[in-house]
Amino acid sequence: MTERPTTTTDAGIAAPSDEHSQSVGPDGPLLLQDHYLIQKMAHFNRERVPERVVHAKGGGAYGTLEITEDVSQYTKAKLFQPGARTESLVRFSTVAGELGSPDTNRDPRGFAIKFYTEDGNYDLVGNNTPVFFIRDPQKFSDFIHSQKRRADNNLRDHNMQWDFWTQSPESAHQVSLLMTDRGTPASWRHMNGYGSHTFLWYNAAGEKFWVKYHFKTDQGVRNFTDAEADEWKAKDAELHVRDLYNAIANGDYPSWTVQVQIMPFEEAADYRFNPFDITKVWPHADYPPITIGTWTLNRNPQNYFAEIEQAAFEPANLVPGIGASPDKMLQGRLFSYPDAHRYRIGPNYLQLPVNRPRTEVHSYNKDGAMAYTNPSDPVYAPNTAGGPAADPEPWRGDGYGVAGEIVRSAYTLHAEDDDFGQARTLWEKVLSDTDRDHMVANIVGHASAPEVTAEMKPRVVEYWRNVHGDLGDRVAKGLGVSGG
Ligand code: NDP
User: Ligand 1 pocket test: which of 223, 430, 435, 440 has the largest number of ligand atoms within 8 Å of its C-beta?
Assistant: First the structure.
């Protein structure tokens, strides 16, 4: 038998017993002086950090991005240069459910990747859909509240979901995708990922481009029907966590082909859709996806809490060669993600091993709860004591001109912008007959929940009629709304 280490307190002192508390005689009361017992009980009470308000349930793995093509004419970002190999961490998740909620709920899936680049961490915090429900962060907390639980009975409520959606017509494209079988992927390995937002790329000469990212699954897209997804909720609520872990443990490494759509900077102004509106895609015919490399997941975490629960992704982590765009949802997320981490896992979350960059950190930020690494003197800039000094050179190229009145307003409409057009294209040109049948059934099933009121149903029908007359008629028929 191998020799076992001695149990200790967290201060490294040998523990007196794994089984018995200190008591006054074998049958007497326990003693406050039993520090080992007190420490165990007190620490147990503090095992949980707050779960994420959104994307609480998830799983993840490590992987490698390998760039096989040359896109140096578009970006100087080192991780995208020909032949570059970059270690990364991904976290897949559902959005609305809590930490223990079923993996096969109908929901978009988070697809958040952290690249440990030689220029610091680059986070691409995407979804398995190319678009989103809303286009202004002003509406984000309201949207999420409508997806979560009611105040009175603490139940999720389809009536409030439709109440929000039908009054937010910009949601129609994303709700369309959600109501197809892509809303219930068979596994995380069998879904595509999208950066969803538009980002800025700039090359070594400072030339600028707009970019969208696509991760196309090499396993093929595979979805569940609504009935299959429901069945799995009862059979194995952790299906997707288990599937990914087992695939990697068995050496069956999932991979994705990485593609980008590139729009020359100047074309944004006159493009037929507002290219920064996250409720829209850039049709492939306008900006054909270009393959740039491959991304393979090849290593499981060893400690779920440390490496996945404490993983902190933030769209604001942008490395030289990559910048933000004026996408309003992106602008909101640049603030809200790091702010959520400061609340959830503390102001020094970037010092945790999973979040720490693989490059040296020379920051003047210091102290705070759980500070583990701290700057030495000098602790301020500017200084004459040889402390770190900022270098603007790598960032040359990330700026662009903007001007305008300060307003509260919708986006400027481009020639073909409306809330329903791209959802209509999906229904008319992309979905097969079977896809359409399932989409209608999924909508009707969702809007037939007992809490959906008789007054709400015609609004649901109207919403879908705006996407397409046939779709609206079929939903009306399914919901028993007259005029269908
Ligand atoms: P294309 O015909 O060039 O592309 C349509 C794309 O739709 C496909 O390439 C595929 O993208 C995706 N798709 C295929 N089957 C389904 C399905 N059952 N459910 C959801 N998406 C599917 O047309 P456009 O580029 O002009 O886009 C037309 C519509 O397709 C858009 O309005 C949008 O609704 C949808 N779409 C477009 C995407 C884009 O980036 N242009 C991406 C995804 C959907 P993929 O291989 O990425 O899954």
Answer: 430
Average confidence (pLDDT) over 280-291: 98
Ligand 1 atom nearest to 435, measured from its CA: 18
Distance 426 CA to ligand 1 centre (A): 7
pTM of the model: 0.97
Query: What distances in angstroms separate CA 281 from CA 132, 143, 191, 216, 221, one per listed residue?
Result: 10, 21, 17, 15, 19
Give pLDDT tens digits for 389-420.
999 999 999 999 999 999 999 999 999 999 99
Q: Which residues of 444-456 are buried (b: 16+ CB within 10 A; e: fewer)?
A: bbbbeeeebeeeb
The closest alpha carbon to 104, from 196, 222, 195, belongs to 222
pLDDT of residue 275: 98
- Residue with the two structure tokens 């900022």: 390
For 23-159+166-377+386-399, CATH number?
Answer: 2.40.180.10
Q: CA 165 → CA 16, 137, 146, 147, 419, distances in Å?
A: 60, 15, 9, 10, 12
Probe target for ligand 1 pocket from 221, 426, 427, 440, with the most ligand atoms within 8 Å of CB = 426
Q: Are residues 194 and 214 in contact, defined by beta-carbon separation less than 8 angstroms?
A: yes
Alpha helices in 288-327, H assignment, sequence order: 304
Tell me how far CA of residue 453 lies from CA of 112, 352, 456, 458, in angstroms: 36, 48, 5, 10
The domain 420-484 is classified under which CATH number: 3.40.50.970, 1.10.3720.10, 3.40.190.10, 1.20.1370.60? 1.20.1370.60
Distances (CA, A) of 210 to 1, 117, 265, 293: 62, 21, 6, 19
- The answer to whether residue 284 is catalytic is no
Residues having CB within 6 Å of any atom of ligand 1? 130, 177, 180, 182, 192, 214, 216, 281-285, 422, 425-426, 430-431, 435
In Å, what is the CA distance from 268 to each residue of 88, 139, 405? 31, 25, 20
Tell me whether the CATH fold assigned to 23-159+166-377+386-399 matches the one assigned to 420-484. Answer: no
Q: φ and ψ at 324, to 5 degrees? A: -80, 165
HSE-CB of 441 using CA atoms within 13 angstroms: 10
Domain positions in the chain:
23-159+166-377+386-399, 420-484
Note whether 121 and 338 are within 8 A (CB).
Answer: no
Determine whether 35 is an active site residue.
Answer: no
* Catalytic choice (20, 43, 45, 55): 55
* End-to-end CA separation in angstroms for the chain: 75
| Averaged pLDDT score across all residues of the chain | 97
